[in-house]
């Protein structure tokens, strides 16, 4: 009995020892590699964990584990240790296979995503000096990563002064929320999310196809966001792109094969059926995002159509007098790069474009940039808006308010509700953004909107004409962007009606003015001249 027990214990020890020495067979890796190829890193990671219990010292499993963790939200820091173990085994370079290159390359990515920029730069530089020059594609990737690291180190030395606040559970969830768009008075927020909506959950990603949601600002807080419904959302992917200042016209994206841009109008609090934008805006290629000018007569959009600088580029078009869209023009190479550009946004005066790019002096992935027009109407060299608004990961969908004091922004950051969340960025009083949004409504005596009126704003002290504005056709609402701390004379002229003049004073803003939104003037009634 005891002898049999000893034999059994010896057999168990032999099996355990043998298992610890054996390596997984090639076919053991096939389901893991297939899942990784399909971007199902969570499921692949679960299979890796099972294999590691059987083969705890296998270096290739360490490599696969590190790559998976790099691609799972919130796990990038955990990726460093298994990649270090893989690197120790494989060394820096081997002619036999790419495992050494991958172990070092992905370890460099892990350092970079965890803000260890100097460590990442050292590792990428070592790889660059070691790998034969004939392996050009690897050297191109290494050069890009080295540029990212050097840019990150430089940008980190001059951080931007700002405050960032998560918009909270009324807006954000454990899923992705992104592509925020906002009305001129900041009372309507719309965005895109892959939380449960109109479609079934994806089998591999466990995410739902993207739907569009909206929320209203009431009594100092955002109301819980609601799905805008099947008049807009489909069983496929629907995403927000741009919203008019009065919140009644929306540009959206639908992935219906190539990916196209659509327009929808709000009537009686319900969004109408989206209409596909015509050529030359849409093409047989993908148009992924767009931004409308404040008057709706210009559009900037991204497309991967042939003839660009490289990959996705930013294009612009203007409306003709007959209402059709005119010729599409490619923005110059001070904006577009051989890499991808995305999520363009035009400022209220049309003189500045904000956009995301993987090129220029990005600190990693997509960064947010801005470019201004010169006196000849040419776009100038793109400027990185700075760290820590931009991060080593992807930063997109940067939507400034009309006054430039605040920005609605989507980002993956520590302390969020999960995946990508929507935040508001606020700039301090010392910042140059000292403008205010002023809104109001114009009506005739019969209660109709006074859409034929023209509003002139004159600086009371200098007598200078600051700007002219028109009310919206359907609502009678006007929106003006004015400097603070100035006295103005506001004159309203309407054909066949009595002119109105009144003094408007815009006080200086507080240090952080995120809760006041637009300043509203009392509604005004335009009277007939005979009255």
Automatic annotation (TrEMBL):
Gene3D superfamilies noted in UniProt: Tetratricopeptide repeat domain, TolB, C-terminal domain
Top-level taxon of the source organism: Bacteria
Record-linked InterPro entries: 6-blade_b-propeller_TolB-like, TPR-like_helical_dom_sf, WD40
Name under which the protein is recorded: PD40 domain-containing protein
Protein source organism: Carboxylicivirga marina
Upper lineage: Bacteria, Pseudomonadati, Bacteroidota, Bacteroidia, Marinilabiliales
């Amino acid at each position: 009995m005891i002898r049999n027990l000893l034999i059994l214990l010896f057999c168990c020890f032999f099996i355990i020892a043998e298992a610890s020495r054996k390596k997984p067979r090639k076919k053991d890796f096939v389901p893991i590699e297939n899942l990784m190829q399909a971007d199902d890193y969570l499921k692949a990671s679960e299979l890796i964990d099972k294999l590691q219990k059987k083969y705890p010292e296998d270096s290739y499993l360490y490599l696969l584990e590190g790559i998976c963790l790099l691609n799972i939200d919130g796990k990038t820091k955990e990726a460093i240790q298994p990649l270090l173990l893989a690197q120790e085994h494989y060394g820096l370079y081997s002619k036999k296979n790419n495992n050494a290159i991958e172990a070092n390359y992905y370890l460099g990515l892990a350092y970079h995503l965890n803000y260890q920029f100097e460590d990442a730069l050292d590792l990428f530089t070592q790889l660059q000096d070691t790998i034969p020059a004939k392996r050009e594609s690897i050297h191109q990737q290494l050069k890009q990563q080295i540029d990212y690291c050097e840019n990150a180190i430089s940008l980190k030395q001059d951080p931007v002064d700002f405050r960032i606040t998560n918009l909270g559970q009324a807006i954000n969830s454990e899923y992705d929320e992104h592509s925020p768009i906002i009305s001129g008075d900041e009372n309507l927020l719309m965005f895109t999310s892959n939380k449960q909506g109109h479609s079934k959950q994806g089998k591999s990603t466990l995410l739902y196809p993207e739907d569009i949601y909206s929320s209203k600002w009431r009594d100092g807080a955002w109301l819980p966001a609601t799905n805008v419904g099947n008049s807009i959302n489909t069983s496929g992917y629907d995403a927000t792109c741009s919203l008019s200042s009065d919140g009644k016209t929306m540009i959206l994206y639908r992935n219906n094969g190539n990916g196209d841009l659509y327009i929808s109008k709000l009537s009686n609090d319900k969004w109408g059926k989206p209409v596909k934008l015509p050529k030359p805006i849409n093409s047989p290629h993908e148009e992924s995002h767009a931004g409308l000018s404040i008057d709706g007569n210009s559009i900037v959009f991204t497309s991967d159509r042939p003839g660009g600088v490289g990959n996705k580029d930013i294009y612009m078009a203007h409306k003709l007098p007959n209402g059709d869209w005119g010729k599409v023009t490619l923005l110059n190479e001070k904006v577009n790069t051989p890499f991808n550009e995305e999520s363009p946004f035009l400022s209220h005066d049309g003189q500045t474009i904000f956009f995301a790019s993987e090129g220029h002096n990005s600190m990693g992935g997509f960064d947010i940039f801005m470019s201004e027009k010169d006196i000849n109407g040419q776009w100038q060299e793109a400027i990185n808006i700075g760290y820590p608004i931009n991060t080593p990961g992807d930063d997109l969908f940067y939507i400034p308010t009309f006054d430039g004091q605040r920005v609605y922004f989507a980002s993956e950051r520590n302390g969020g509700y999960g995946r990508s969340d929507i935040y508001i960025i606020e700039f301090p009083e010392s910042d140059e953004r000292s403008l205010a949004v002023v809104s109001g409504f114009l009506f005739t005596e019969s209660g109709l909107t006074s859409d034929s009126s023209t509003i002139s704003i004159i600086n009371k002290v200098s007598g200078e004409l600051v700007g002219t504005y028109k009310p919206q056709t359907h609502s009678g609402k006007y929106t003006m962007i004015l400097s603070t701390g100035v006295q103005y004379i506001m004159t309203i002229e309407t054909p066949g009606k009595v002119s109105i003049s009144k003094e408007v004073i815009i006080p200086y803003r507080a240090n952080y003015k995120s809760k006041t939104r637009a300043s509203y003037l009392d509604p005004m009634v335009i009277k007939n001249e005979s009255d």
